Each structure stands twice: as C-alpha cells, then as structure tokens.
Amino acid sequence: MIFDAEKDEDTWTHRMRKRLRRLWESNVGKSGVAVVAAFLFTLYLRLRPKPAYLNSKDAPVSLLYQSAPKGVIEKALLSSTGRIVYFLIKQKGWHRSNLTNGMQDNILKALSNTELSTLPESWISRLATPALTALPFVYLAMVYRMLNNSMRDKSFNPLKNKKSFKITFNDVAGIDHVVQEVSEIVSYLKKPSHFEQLGARLPGAILLHGPPGSGKTLIAQAVAGESGVDCFMACSASDFVEMYVGRGAARVRKLFRDLREKAKKHYGRWSGRRKPTAILFLDELDALAKHRSQFNSNDEREQTLNQLLTEMDGFDRDTNEVTVVVMAATNRADVLDPAILRRFERQVYVGYPDAMGRKAILQIHAKKIRHDADIDWNALANGTNGLSGADLRNMVNEAALLAIREDSSTVSQSHLEHAARRVLGTKLQQNTFTR
C-alpha cells in the first residue's frame, strides 16, 4: 500500500474545515467563540504593560503642597476629569491624591514650576457615556427578540415536500374500493378542464375513517403522488392542541398560509392546470375535532376547531388562487363534531383487506426482499385473517429478520409462516396455512 502524505493531509484538512464549519454554524460554536474572545480580551487587559503612574501610592494632598516648594516633584499628571493628580517625588516614586471641587486651581499654582501635563481620556472612558446611553435600547431589543422567538412557535414543523411523496396507486393493494373513490380526485387535479366543462365541482375535503393500520395515510400519499400536486403537507391534528389560548388557531392559519405560498412557488404551468394545487393531510383528526357540548368545553380546542372550519370554508374554487384539497384520517369517526363532518364532502371507509387483498399486499411487500420462488401466497393470505396492511408489512419484515437470524440466503415459506404466528400473537396450528 502506497502512502500519499500530500493527499492524506488534504483529506484531513478538508475534514477539519467541515467540522469547524459545522461547529461555527451551531449555536454552541458561536457561544464558544464568544467566550474565548472574551477570555483573550480579559487576558490582554491583565497582561499588557501598564504606565508607572498607575502603580502609585495613595497620599494626602498635603504631601503635594509640602513637596512642591522643595522642588522634589519631578513630574505631575492631572487626570482628564480633574479628580486625580499623580506626582513623582524623587527617590520616593509615584503618588496619587484625590481632588475635590475647587482644588484644581490651587494645585496648578503649587505645581507652576513643575512639569505638569493632562492625561488623555482613556478609550474606556470615551466608550462609557455612549455605552450607558445605548444600554437601555440594547436591553429592549433583547427583550423584543426573546418575545418574538417565543411567539414564533418553532416546535410546529409539518412535513413538507415539493412534489409530494413518490408513492402511487401501484403501491396500494387490498382496498380497491377506496382507490376507486379517490381516483376521481386525482383525475380532477390532473385535468380540471374536463370536469369544469360539465359543471362538476371538486370535493374540497375527504375523510378517511377506519381501524388503525388499514392504509389511510398510504392513500393520502398515493393521491398526492398520482396527481402530481405542487405542494403536499402532512401533519397530525394533535399538533394544533395547545395549552395556551390562541396558539392552536395561529398554527392553523400559518399552516394554510404556508401551503398556499409553497404551491404558488412550485407551480408549473406546463402541467396543464390553470392554477396551483395542493393537498393537506391531517392525521388523527379526532384529537382536535371531537364533538363539542355545553358540558365539556375547552376554549383553546374550540377556537382551533373554529379556525380550521373557517379555513375549510374559504376554499372558493373560482376566486381562490390555489386549489386545496384537505384529506383527513381518523379511527373514531363517531366522536367527530357534526360541523367538521359537514365540511368533508366525501367520507370513505377504509377497512381491513380480504383474502385476495392480503395476498396482493404480501406480494407488494415481498418485492423488497429476496424470497423463494415457491411461496404459496394463497395459503399465507388465508392464514392471516384479521391482519391489517401494516401488520402484513411487519410480517414480511419479521420473516426477513428471521432468515437473517438463521443465516439463510432467502426468505422461505416457513419463515413467513413463523412471522405470521408472531404477528398474530398466538401459536397457530401448521394446518392453518392450507396449500
């Protein structure tokens, strides 16, 4: 192996530059630089050479009056403020005396035959006055910045994508009726002119409800991927539930405002659509939009829900600059408020797949693993009754992990059956997977 010292040094220098750049961009790096700079400045002030008169001894003014007529004072220095006088006595060194108002004239007369000069004002003294003047304004600016940062709400950061997820209907199986329901939305978003000629109106909100793990989030991602919208955002409705009144409503307004701005930014006129399009997906809608009653009141939750209702009512397809489709998912549609249910013009139930659907789902997830060619998918589908799409995905992954644990090169039928028993949580009989 040939060792290239120059190349190795360049690589090390490049790595160090990257690390220093990351350190500087972080708040810790900037704070560390400020601390080091303050330490070096303090060290400079402590170690720099000081004039001899600064090491003078305190002495009463009477000593100056007694020494001046004798001619033993070699030099005298008067501070710029006239409050301190430094005088050098032969063979005794520097002395310092504090002066009061009215004593300056007497000092000048006493030192008339002595070399007397006035000390220039130090840079600290020159900066003291403007610094004290600016200090209240600096304090107010810091308070304003702290309040502004606290109101900015950096904790809320919904998932944003320029062109949505790269998921299509080819990645969805077992819920064909749901795909058929939402395919009209995709067709409208792709070619709105065909629908507008017939006077058809796009459903502005779609509610996907059903048991957990049935594929509600996957459907929303597939709609965004198939339609090629200009902007797709996904977040949980629980992100809007806050302790402080007004915070949730502000988050709702910010979310819809960012959604429209991002759709305008990434709008491509070549797509054939006459205006930008966007999809907003709200997961776990029941966390925000539960049924309201006079006995169970929550001002913050109701204010946030009212703001959401207002934003959803504001989607006028003829005057609004951005076409927005709201898709929401919930496991408990029965607890939703009637006002929010009315806004969802289409409500689609997403249930667990049947045997044919489970087979299709298993085959989709099996494309990502290396498996034997003689896998009996029908037997696996019949033996996994009651499993959701998410459970089937977990089952295929468990089978792959089991094959790795046994140091097998491929996933076999036995691996999948063992994974199915593990996901089901019970020890199934071998004849459950009938071939």
- Taken from the alpha-carbon principal axes, the silhouette is elongated
Radius of gyration: 39 Å
Q: Summarize the main sheet.
A: 6 strands, mixed
Uncertain regions spanning at least 5 consecutive residues:
1-9, 426-431
Alpha-carbon distance between the termini?
Answer: 58 Å
Derived from helix and strand composition plus strand pairing, the structural class reads: alpha/beta
> What is the typical, i.e. mean, pLDDT?
79
Q: What is the H-and-E element order?
A: HHEHEEEHEHEHHEHEHEHEHEHHHH
Please give the CATH class of the largest domain: Alpha Beta
Tally of individual helices: 15
Number of strands: 11
Order of strands in the sheet with the most strands? 6-8-9-10-7-11
Fraction of residues in helix: 40-55%
CATH fold descriptor of the largest domain:
Rossmann fold
Question: Beta-strand level of the residues, as a percent range?
Answer: 5-15%
Number of domains: 5
Name given to the CATH homologous superfamily of the largest domain: P-loop containing nucleotide triphosphate hydrolases
CATH architecture of the largest domain: 3-Layer(aba) Sandwich
